[in-house]
Amino acid sequence: MTETVDVVLIGGGIMSATLGTLLSELQPDWKIVVYERLHDVGLESSNAWNNAGTGHAALCELNYTPEGPDGTIDPAKAISINEQFQQSRQFWSSLVEEGALDAPSTFINSTPHMTFVRGEKDVTFLKKRYDALRSQPLFAGIQYSEDSRVINKWAPLLMQKRPSGEPFAATRVPAGTDVDFGALTHQLFDNLRERGADVVTNREVRTLKRMKDGTWRIRWRNSIGHTPGETRARFVFVGAGGWALKLLQRSGIPEIKGYGVFPIGGQWLKTSNPSLVAKHKAKVYSQASVGAPPMSVPHLDTRVVDGETSLLFGPFATFSPKFLKNGSMLDIVTQVRPSNLWPMMKVAIDNPSLITYLVGELMKNHKKKVDSLRTFMPTAKDEDWELLDAGQRAQVMKKDRKKGGVLQFGTEVVTGADGTIAGLLGASPGASTAVSIMLGLLQTCFPDRIHDWEPRLRALIPSYGQQLNPRPDVAQDVLSETAEALALTA
């Protein structure tokens, strides 16, 4: 007999973990089942070494503060991203206080966020960005300097033996964070198991079909032994990274028509050299290369994984037709449908700089990649750094009425008309803003329940339904409270 459950979450990453945790808090009587095709959760994009671990709050990422045609800087997107990250911090804080998460240092650590630029044009831009953000309550404490002595105190590796005569500048926000989303994902799923959810690994979902009674029939196969089976669910969330597109296509919902994804892989340079690690405590972002997607903005990062600190630089783009690191070589071909063929072709036609950028990245060997690092760290030595494969990102392509097709940056939730199925497509800043994304999903998919859930949501996330930035006193209180609960020093 086929089991019918309330919720099936497909994919064992941070998105499914976040949604599952929210639903278990809001509706503890619901039966929740998680299916992950690999042998453990958090092994794809959520794995600590597959992402930068930046607590994306727009403190250092230049693509969230675009410069307008008139030269002005609009801080709206940066404020929005920061607001979303604050919701994540509040949610994690509540779970720590409830004992649902382990000691905060196991998944989040204080790490200043910096931006470093060179050349007169970028220095002028960074100064305007600083002026646009420093009066915003969520960006209180941001610092700016063009003084080599000051920047040397912030991040010595940036300034040692730097050539003289070139203009440079930096901003710094001490309150930045480094997040181990792999550890966080594991802890959230451990808590879900304790609350009665079934978290099943080595199980690959093959098809989704809407039944006459309104439930979804989920047919799956065990990775070991290839035993088939099926489950019925009243609600399905597809949080399977790049494979979310394939599963949503198989579901037959019309809302997925016109979507495609372009896979972009990545590599990091990594060092655990104690003398280097001791000299750099920051995540330092800069301007992206021409044609590079925002997730390929170069940055030199402090990483704390399993209690050990190291440095990463990158990412360097690679190419694979797979939608996941453990995907199929045919993924990029099997996604093609009559509805998305032209949008994907139009994206290729309209983005030659992206193709040029990718070709240039693919031609870089280890030495060339360390040469790129030297623009950040002039004293970098080839032998101190090793190459590490990062995660596979599936950049969204979608139909556009005016352009035919566009490359969509960020994350996007695709929801069926009746709200019984939803899936997530896209990349950064997804993990950092997972709570906000899932709150939006709850409002869309459960409109008849969201009002009754609001008291519990406000208990978990005090700023739920409100903006912090327009209320400086409240913003400061929330920032201080979550910093204390998460044992953040800055």
TrEMBL record:
NCBIfam families linked: mal_quin_oxido, PRK05257.1-1, PRK05257.1-4, PRK05257.2-1, PRK05257.2-5, PRK05257.3-1, PRK05257.3-2, PRK13339.1
Protein name, as recorded: Probable malate:quinone oxidoreductase
UniProtKB keywords: FAD, Flavoprotein, Oxidoreductase, Tricarboxylic acid cycle
Pathways per UniProt: Carbohydrate metabolism; tricarboxylic acid cycle; oxaloacetate from (S)-malate (quinone route): step 1/1
TM region positions: none
EC top class named in words: oxidoreductase
Gene Ontology terms for molecular function: L-malate dehydrogenase (quinone) activity
